[in-house]
Write a structure and sequence with these properties.
195 residues, 9 helices, 2 strands, 3% strand, elongated
Length: 195
Amino acid sequence: MLLHELVRLLERNEMLASELLGPFASGDLAGVCCFAAEQYVTYLRQEYYELLEVLARLGLAVLLGGLVGIERQVHGRWAGLRTHMAVSIAAAMFMVAGQRVIPTDAPDLTRVIQGIATGIGFLGAGTILKLSDQLEVKGLTTASSIWLSAAVGTACGAALYGLAVAGTVTTLIVLALLRPVEKWMRGGPEEHTRS
């Protein structure tokens, strides 16, 4: 019934019919083939640009997560370059997948972010060590840097590149440049001046 109404509407309005049906209306086989080829090329072009966008998101996640991982690796921490890169790219992949499955305006996308933050918490907890003979806990900074790499990857996956770069730069400042300040605070000013 709906199809019959559409046919009647197109019969009454020739201009609308020619716009909608294009080469199909004239019965021109070459025109139909050209139209199909144009549609296919448009589809391939769209797929190509989507692939490039995904590769850019994942590539930036790997790069930025790797920068944090290098800082950890240089200082001999348990989770280094590869761990931080893997965490960052995994978070980006979860975000890209979530955006493909869920519309971007849906509140369900925040559940993807919550899942990443919670799941990475378990991985980070594995790097924390309570030394039994000492009153000292080790690995908290590494655990937080893993969690942060997940946040950077999440930002890259959501195409929030400025946030990802700013978060990485801030993290590197905190991890690398504030290390001497932290050592000075732990040792006190007297020990710092002696060494």
